Amino acid sequence: MTRNKLKEAAMRLFGEKGYEGTALSEIAKEVGVKTPAIYAFFENKEDLFMTVFREAMGSYNSYIQALSGEHKELSAKDSLYQILTRQYAFYQQSREASLIVLRYVIFPPAFLKETIEEAFLESDKLLTNVIEQLIKKGIEEGDIREQPIPLLADAFLNLMDGLSMQYFYYTSKEVYERKLNHAFTMYWSSASS
């Protein structure tokens, strides 16, 4: 239980204050333990941070894997759109995990850059595979015109990345949803038959 509380506090504080701005003593204090208690569960600050970061990435990966099973009955258009709306739902439900992933993928501490990139690339590979399968299905069913699948997948991933940033810019659900709908409309109009 203490280990989980330490991870929860660390995720929130690392997301809010950054790696450098968060002291182990601060995490320990929030949980109500002494700083040395952290070392019973984690080697050091880096180990605690990477544990939290990997778990945040893992929760997103699990969410994406669940999506791939749900799309068998939907059209490619509906499936791709649902990925965007589910990404939005993930951000709302898991704000701290989303914040820590976004913050450190964009601005990793220099000494953790390579480790974070490896974790991110693992997630990106999974997501790319899901999207490529949906695009392939759309081409086979005639909903998407014949184009290189990597081109369409990369464009969609860039759309997702842009919407990720937009989510943290706008507090208005209506504004965000309008931007999501407009962006998807433009993507689909260039991809569809």
Can you offer a commentary on this structure?
- By secondary structure, the protein is mostly helical.
- The protein has one domain (45-191): Tetracycline Repressor, domain 2 (Orthogonal Bundle).
- Helices cover 77% and strands 0% of the residues.
- It contains 8 helices and no strands.
- The protein has helices spanning 2-17, 24-31, 45-70, 76-93, 95-106, 113-140, 149-169, 173-191.
- Helix 7 (149-169) runs antiparallel to helix 8 (173-191).
- The longest helix has 28 residues, at 113-140.
- It is elongated and about 60 Å long.
Question: Can you describe this structure in just a few lines?
Answer:
It holds the Pfam family TetR_N. It comes from Paenibacillus aquistagni. By secondary structure, this protein is mainly alpha-helical.
